[in-house]
Amino acid sequence: MDKEDIRIIDLLSLALRRWRSTFAITFLASIAAIIISLSIPNQYKSFTVISSTDSTINQSGSAFGGLGTLGNALGLNFSEVDDAKVAKAIEILKSQNFILSFIKKYNLEPMLLAVKGYDPKKNQLVYDKAIFDNEKNQWGKNFFGRIFVPNDEMLYERFSGMLIVDSETKRNFINISITFFTPSDSKKILTDLMFELDKSLREKQQKISEMSVKSLVEKINQTSDQSLKTTYFAILEEYIKEQDLASTSYEHIFTVIEPPTLPISKSLPLRSLIVIFTFLIAFFLSALVSVTIPENIYRKLPRIIRS
Question: What is the C-alpha to C-alpha distance for residues 104 and 155, in angstroms, rounded to an integer?
Fold first, then answer.
């Protein structure tokens, strides 16, 4: 038996002799993890699934054969592929400008920055009064008497932490979720968010269509070729239909596959994982310490955690 084998046997023997310290530290760490995990408030995730909708322009591109190619050649943005729609929606949804506009329109600043939990007995959110006094409906004051003023960076980072956007490019699906302290609030925030996203995309589509219509009218007035005018009028008709749909149809840009859900069970915190990981880490570290700490120091430890 070589020296290395003897050394390993000695370490195992020492670990067995000092098992009480390993057990005590692991046990105390696990109890602390349970207490801490129970003190973390529950959070609930509402999610929705949307997919790109074939617009009138896209459909007409197939129906009219070469009109789509001609429209693109004229610089009219005649069609937009589904991948581009998905990418645009995600870009808008994650943009700071869109998120901040949404937060301020729906007055979510106190909920995002001051809510620290939910009281099921009173059926109301619990606010940190040092940040926001919900009863007086005013921001709190710091030690120096200065009123807390939320800034855009705080709001954007907090909301971005609640929002998850995951795209399935193969099927042109977008999975969107919001996590908050109550099921009803998480669903409401997500529902409002989807409404504003659809509205924003429709407004952008309307502006593009208006510019295209204006350009087509100019081209019709400038040409004397009757066959070319006929083609322009066919394209113009489709753009006018596009404008009408964009202004009246809620699901013109995207189709809702799964509307915002009302979560039943919590999504956070993952208490069992917190306790399990704490147990494993505490066991490993306490075992490592028990075999490396010198005997004279080990003897000075409290009697309850040493053999």
Answer: 10
Instruction: Compute the CA torsion angle 224, 226, 228, 231 (nearest 10 deg).
Output: 140
Q: Name 77's Cβ contacts closer than 8 Å, sequence gap at least 6.
A: 71, 208, 212
**pLDDT digits 0-9 by tens, 266-294:** 998 899 999 999 999 998 888 877 766 65
C-beta atoms surrounding 2 within 10 Å: 6
Query: Rounded CA gap, 94 and 84, in Å?
Result: 15
**How far is residue 185 CA from its own chain's centroid?**
15
Instruction: Say how far apart CA 72 and CA 287 lie, in whole Å.
Output: 69
Any alpha helices (H) in 171-248, and if so which ranges?
183-222, 226-248
The b-or-e profile of 152-176 (16+ CB within 10 A means b, else e) is: eeebbebbeebbeeebeeeebbbeb
Q: Which two tokens stand for residue 152?
A: 């855009």
DSSP 69: H
Spatial distance between the Cα atoms of 158 and 115, rounded to a whole number of angstroms: 11
Please report, rounded to a whole number, the percentage of residues in the chain having pLDDT higher than 70.
72
pTM for the whole thing?
A: 0.75
Contact of 180 with 263, CB cutoff 8 Å: no
Q: At a CB cut-off of 8 Å and minimum separation 6, what does 202 contact?
A: 246, 247, 252, 253
